[in-house]
């Protein structure tokens, strides 16, 4: 029979947080802080995702994780800095689709070979692309946008954050799937493109959700659809492109990578720590507030994902004759 004292002890024990399982002890990262390179400017979606991840990784690895912004060439410069760093496990990059899955297959000059030089650690998060229009455009749905574009061939311009960016490719995938004649207008980043979208200088745009959410919430932009496999809790009334009748999926994504020269046991240690961080309730909540979905997963799964994304967007680029050389 359980005594009252024993029962009280069991209740108290159940109220305590579960002890964290120890990380694999087969590898040790060199002493010192860990750099988490963001290959884009501060304040963007990639940067926000990295800073939350870095905080959690630091707690798990019991190290100081320093976020370092090294922007340029659509994420290639910062990624290159990490894959050529000392292979001691202290240099990581939260790279994106553009740097390791899109640029290489669209002819961009690459200072590294993704297959040989990059060690995929884990897929960190998916970030849906939101299709929005200015209030001045007389459309409220994908069907109305397609109809408007067909009635005004060549007169609908869509903005993007640059040639070969995910917003550019999402726009091209939409153009092909809907059979419409729309014109691409590239910008140097999402911010100036969104500014011109609000002003009606361009008539539509796909972008990472955080790049347009404040404007949507302030009614400066009208959300039309999400180029994702599921709706977002942030915009529950906004349908997916597939639900709207044009099946375009264009989730941007962020992944943790290192140099391929980092010893395999250290890569495994980093993957284990990142996977644990991505299950943290605080991180999940913080990502959800940005519209992002944490993923995690094995190194092999991330490697296969990169290969599939390269093939998919390479085909879109070839059909649209997009070249980044």
From TrEMBL:
Belongs to the UPF0065 (bug) family. This is Tripartite tricarboxylate transporter substrate binding protein. The keyword Signal applies. It comes from the Bacteria. Keywords: Signal. InterPro entries: BUG, Bug_dom1. The keyword Translocase does not apply. Residues 1-24 form the signal peptide.
């Amino acid at each position: 029979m359980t005594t009252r004292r024993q029962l009280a002890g069991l209740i108290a024990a159940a109220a305590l947080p579960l002890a964290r399982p120890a990380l694999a002890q087969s590898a040790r990262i060199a002493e010192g802080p860990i750099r988490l390179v963001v290959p884009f400017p501060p304040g963007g979606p990639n940067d926000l995702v990295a800073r939350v991840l870095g905080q959690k990784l630091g707690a798990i690895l019991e190290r100081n994780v320093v976020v370092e912004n090294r922007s340029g060439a659509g994420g290639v410069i910062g990624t290159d800095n990490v894959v050529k760093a000392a292979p001691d496990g202290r240099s990581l990059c939260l790279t994106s689709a553009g740097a390791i899955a899109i640029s290489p297959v669209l002819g961009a000059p690459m200072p590294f070979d993704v297959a040989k030089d990059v060690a995929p650690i884990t897929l960190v998060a998916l970030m849906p692309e939101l299709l929005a229009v200015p209030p001045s455009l007389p459309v409220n749905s994908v069907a109305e946008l397609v109809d408007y574009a067909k009635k005004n061939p060549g007169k609908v311009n869509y903005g993007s954050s640059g040639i070969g960016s995910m917003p550019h490719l999402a726009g091209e995938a939409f153009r092909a799937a809907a059979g419409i004649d729309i014109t691409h207008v590239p910008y140097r980043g999402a911010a100036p493109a969104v500014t011109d979208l609000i002003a009606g200088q361009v008539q539509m745009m796909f972008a990472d959700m955080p790049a347009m959410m404040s404007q949507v919430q302030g009614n400066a932009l009208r959300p039309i659809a999400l180029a994702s496999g599921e709706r977002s809790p942030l915009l529950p009334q906004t349908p997916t492109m597939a639900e709207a009748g044009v099946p375009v999926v264009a989730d941007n994504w962020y992944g943790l990578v290192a140099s391929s020269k980092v010893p395999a046991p250290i890569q495994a240690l980093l993957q284990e720590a990142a996977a644990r961080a991505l299950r943290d309730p605080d991180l999940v909540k913080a990502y959800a507030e940005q519209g992002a979905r944490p993923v995690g997963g094995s190194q092999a799964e991330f490697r296969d994902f990169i290969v599939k994304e390269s093939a998919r967007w390479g085909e879109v680029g070839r059909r649209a004759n997009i070249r980044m050389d």
